[in-house]
Amino acid sequence: MHSAHRGATYADLMLAGLQRRPSGTVDRVGQLIAALASAGVQRHDGVAILAIPGPDSNAAAAAALALGARLTFLHPLASADDQAHILDDADVSTLVHHPLLAERAAQVASRAPRVERLLSLGPSGDALDLIALADTLPHVPARSVAEEEDVAFVHYTGGTTGRPKGVAVTHRAMVHGALMVLSEWDWPHEVRFLACTQMAQVLLVPIRLRGGEVHFTPFDPQLVLDTIARERITCMYLVPSMVYALLDHPGIRDADLSSVESIFYGASTISPTRLEEALDVFGPVMCQIYASTEATHTVSVLRKRDHDAAVPGRLESCGRPAAALDVQVHDDAGVEVAPGVAGEIAVRGRSLMEGYWRQPEATARALRGGWYRTGDVGFQDEHGFLTIVDRRHDVIIRDGVNVYPREVELALASHPDVLQVAVCGVPDARSGEQVLATVRARPDAEPSTDELLRLVHERKGVRCVPDTIAFVDAIPMTANGKPDRKLLRARAAQ
User: Fold this and answer.
1) Contact in structure between 59 and 51 (CB atoms under 8 Å)
2) C-alpha angle 167-220-119 in degrees, rounded to nearest 5
3) What are the start and end residues of each CATH 3.40.50.980 domain in the chain?
4) pLDDT at residue 24, as a whole number
5) Residue of 160 and 151 predicted with greater confidence
6) Contacts of 332 (CB under 8 A, 6+ apart)
7) Residue 63, SS3?
8) Beta bridge partners of residue 301, listed in sequence order
9) In angstroms, what CA-CA distances link 20 with 15, 148, 212?
10) pTM for the complete prediction?
11) Under CATH, domain 395-493 is a member of which superfamily?
12) Does the 3-164 domain belong in CATH 3.40.250.10?
């Protein structure tokens, strides 16, 4: 490619976004670039960040990417075992951590022999204080030496079906993903974004390019409601379990939500019944995003105006595909199926991953035939709206018949006394698998097993009726906010 056609890198977008809200942050990134280089970090090195989202961790991330390093975020709520595996698998030589996570950082670094240096965003035991080092260095312009085909991130999947896999994403893919966020999402005119999930990390660039501001807070329903009112928050990103927690908060009806114009939600499927409740409580501000780690940022969007409960099945949909992508539904032979016919959702476009980190066979399976095979089973209607039926690996095969957990979950979630439900298959010597439904009921409500079984039978037929319904006080969630079916299966096996 001629140098006149060089594209912007994700680091270029990060720096441009910081410059649009002058606050000295760009100078800080310049200092951190110099500090990382002084500590020994070089282009193409693996750098991991274990931190609470905030200005320092985001400045460090921008500095690492501008230096040309390959970045991996460690989720602070993930297990030490998974974190140590990620450090080793991603070939991380530098671990940057928040002082509050110093003990965990030292623990996982000791189990990852590739880690050569431990850096901290402030005073922290034996770790080199990156912030203090940066303060000793002169202010220098923040510039990026990365190239658009360099791997910018190795993101790790949630590991709900086994060890997390590294997803290698280039600067080019991240740039195209950020541009899709800017063009496809329903952003308010004034962006005052509340960041309370890990997903916020990949939204900071589009937000800052719009001249928006970001307010960081851990997720706690009362804290979120207080921050919305105090800072006049106009938008935020939530996973469905967070939406449910806000809806269940006793003060939700009295909270000042008048500033909120957009609530983006995604990462896992949402109960249409609870989505209707959210539309009633929050107003017409809900905007669903369907994406995956491998298809960065956006695959399809159910816009605010498309949340129409009067249209059958619309609240079960994840919207229309983004304009910059090709999205089709394929049969097992890779052939596109007709509207209304279920198959595997397939995607192609410039925002896709390069592949799974150092796993060529898994990459070949996922990117065969020129398409990324999402593993999501769904269908597209005649108007282009996608509806996900379930994940291929979550399909339960009972007595040779396919049962999609999502179908069972939707039926159970329609009961007025059910707050949340997760369905999974458990091994059974006679039938192959049995259907286990784990149900969290509303406080002071006691739906009976028989009435829930009858409800599923009426709505979905005998094929979908669970073998067992277990009532729990809380459904276990993964670090990414999805129901932990892996843990539910393990508990059932015990």
Assistant:
1) no
2) 50
3) 3-164
4) 62
5) 151
6) 343, 344
7) helix
8) 289, 320
9) 9, 22, 9
10) 0.84
11) ANL, C-terminal domain (3.30.300.30)
12) no
